[in-house]
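re: the backbone from monday

yeah here it is again, tokenized this time
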């Protein structure tokens, strides 16, 4: 058998030079909001270059929002696993949570209870994927969507999340100085929470109107009052928050609970009939009815 020389095993000189001259992946600048398509933008982010991805992607919902981008929301979660070093955290409906890809594990499933919600489902889940299989404590946070006095003047995005909720999520999976990517940053809530919690961020939003709103919020312009609320740490136990002063009217399109609809009204007895006799007392005799 004829031995192959070393020169024959190596690729041609021109191909080696071309590979050596290939530029490294461009990393987007930190603490910026980019008005781009998230799939195009993430090609400019090196793999495993962000500490965590935290996002609220388009997902199947009963309000039929974002019908043309539902597949994008699911696909981006798996792309995010290539970009994140540690965690991918995302909001989703409680019924069809996607499984993590190979090499990743679901380590927590938090619940966001919305006491002022108008729809039939009053909560969303916040799923945490990690490369490490070690489980984290799953939390239940009861936080109004937005104070109704704020909503009266501030209606920029149909699915905007409370800043306080994002701060709690950041506390769970990041530390000061970490870099967070949100490929569906919307009106910028994740970026605002990162700025408050001394985390770096990269926000990507395809809609120029929402991208501009996010930039204005980060500059302190045209921001909802909650952006200036005091920063508090996540509670150690499940938190209860009082609903808004004016509770919303029930959704007319929401299905009624059959158990509540068919339930008999509770009978309220007068005090004289609610007192039970003691062992020494004889129960009162029933009064005889007169037949006339």
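seq for it, each position gets an aa:
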């Amino acid at each position: 058998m004829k031995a192959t020389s070393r020169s024959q095993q190596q690729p041609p000189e021109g191909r080696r030079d071309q590979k050596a001259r290939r530029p490294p992946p461009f990393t987007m600048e930190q603490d910026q909001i980019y008005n781009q398509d998230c799939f195009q933008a993430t090609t400019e982010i090196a793999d495993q270059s962000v500490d965590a991805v935290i996002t609220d992607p388009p997902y199947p919902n009963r309000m039929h929002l974002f019908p043309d981008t539902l597949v994008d929301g699911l696909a981006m979660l798996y792309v995010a696993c290539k970009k994140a070093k540690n965690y991918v955290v995302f909001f989703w409906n409680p019924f069809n949570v996607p499984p993590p890809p190979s090499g990743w594990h679901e380590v927590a499933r938090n619940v966001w209870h919305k006491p002022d919600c108008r729809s039939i489902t009053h909560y969303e889940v916040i799923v945490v994927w990690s490369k490490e299989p070690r489980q984290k404590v799953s939390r239940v946070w009861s936080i109004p969507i937005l104070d109704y006095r704020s909503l009266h003047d501030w209606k920029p995005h149909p699915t905007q999340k409370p800043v306080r909720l994002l701060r709690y999520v950041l506390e769970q999976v990041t530390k000061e100085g970490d870099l967070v990517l949100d490929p569906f940053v919307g009106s910028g809530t994740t970026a605002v929470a990162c700025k408050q919690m001394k985390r770096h961020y990269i926000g990507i939003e395809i809609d120029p109107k929402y991208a501009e709103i996010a930039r204005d919020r980060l500059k302190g312009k045209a921001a909802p009052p909650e952006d200036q609320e005091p920063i508090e740490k996540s509670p150690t136990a499940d938190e209860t928050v009082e609903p808004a002063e004016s509770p919303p009217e029930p959704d007319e399109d929401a299905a009624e609970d059959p158990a509540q609809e068919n339930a008999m009204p509770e009978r309220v007895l007068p005090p004289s009939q609610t007192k039970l006799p003691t062992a020494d007392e004889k129960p009162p005799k029933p009064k005889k009815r007169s037949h006339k």
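Residues 70-83 form the longest helix (14 residues). The chain has one domain: 25-231.
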